[in-house]
Amino acid sequence: MQNDVLPRNVNDSRSVHNARVDTNPSGESMRNWLRENRGFLVLLLCLGVFRTAIADWNPIPSGSMRPTLLEGDVVLVDRLAYDLKFPLTDFSLARISDPQRGDVVTFSSPRDGTRLIKRIVAVPGDVVELRDEVLFINGHAAQYLDRALVREPLEQGGEIPALRATERIGGADRSIQFLPSVSAKRSVAPLVVPADSYFMLGDNRDNSADSRYIGFVPRRLLIGHASRILVSADILGDWRPRIDRIGQTLR
């Protein structure tokens, strides 16, 4: 009876020993891999923190900000322009400065969380209104100067007529455009912008899902201030680099 039991115990202990030997190499390999690549992993971590807390770049996929931004532009986004946020969250650790009328900003849509880029046209306490495309801020109407008819390219091909102009309001100028043949929300009754919220419009007024459709944007959803164009390529055409747009400051 003892002879029958002993071999089984010996075999079992050998099996356990072999199993331990089999698992050690993989664990050791992982530790070796981590040691050999720790510099690269630290770089990835630093890059992640940099992009989520300090600065980011944002490709422009649509024409909602034409003519200021074109499809294929990549803009630099200063994430520290307004708030110091805990990485990967909307939680603000400290306020740095207040967004201003005319700032081009990236933010998460309050409707579905999609990242958008638009222009702030009204800040907390402002009364904002649109009357048949004309922007009013606190009862003062914008002026539309240097009007010009152009042809606007469509993503699916072809062109439609567009009216471009310099919109002047509150002492600031920016280039915008209208698409008369497109159905759009061209009038908005007077609205008071709530505290810590902003009213956004795309510069391509008749082709932009902005605050006319998604409502006011809370400050906590702001990602950062888009300050300049890093690189640009004609993604609707032959993908040729637009050298003249590289480094342009956004106005």
Structure description:
With 251 residues, the chain is an alpha+beta fold. Helices cover 22% and strands 37% of the residues. The strands form 4 sheets. The protein has a 7-stranded antiparallel beta sheet with strand order 1-2-16-5-6-14-15. The protein is globular, with a radius of gyration of 28 Å.
Nearest-angstrom radius of gyration?
A: 28 Å
Structural class: alpha+beta
Coarse morphology: globular
Biggest sheet architecture: 7 strands, antiparallel
Question: Roughly how many Å apart are the termini?
Answer: 93 Å
Our estimate of the beta-strand percent is 35-45%
Name the helicity range.
Answer: 10-25%
| H/E element order | HHEEEEEEEEEEEEEEHEE
- The quaternary state of the protein chains shown equals single chain
Walk across the major sheet and give the strand order.
Answer: 1-2-16-5-6-14-15
Low-confidence stretches: 1-22
What count of helical segments does DSSP give?
3
Q: How many E strands?
A: 16
Averaged pLDDT, please?
86
What is this entry, summarized?
The protein has 3 helices and 16 strands. The protein has helices spanning 2-36, 38-54, 211-214, and strands at residues 55-59, 73-78, 83-85, 92-95, 104-108, 115-122, 127-131, 134-137, 140-141, 143-153, 159-169, 172-178, 188-192, 197-201, 217-218, 222-232. A hairpin with a 6-residue loop joins strand 3 (83-85) and strand 4.
How are the SSEs placed, and which strands pair?
Blueprint: H1 2-36, H2 38-54, E1 55-59, E2 73-78, E3 83-85, E4 92-95, E5 104-108, E6 115-122, E7 127-131, E8 134-137, E9 140-141, E10 143-153, E11 159-169, E12 172-178, E13 188-192, E14 197-201, H3 211-214, E15 217-218, E16 222-232
Antiparallel strand pairs: 1-2, 2-16, 3-4, 5-6, 5-16, 6-14, 7-8, 7-13, 8-9, 10-11, 11-12, 14-15
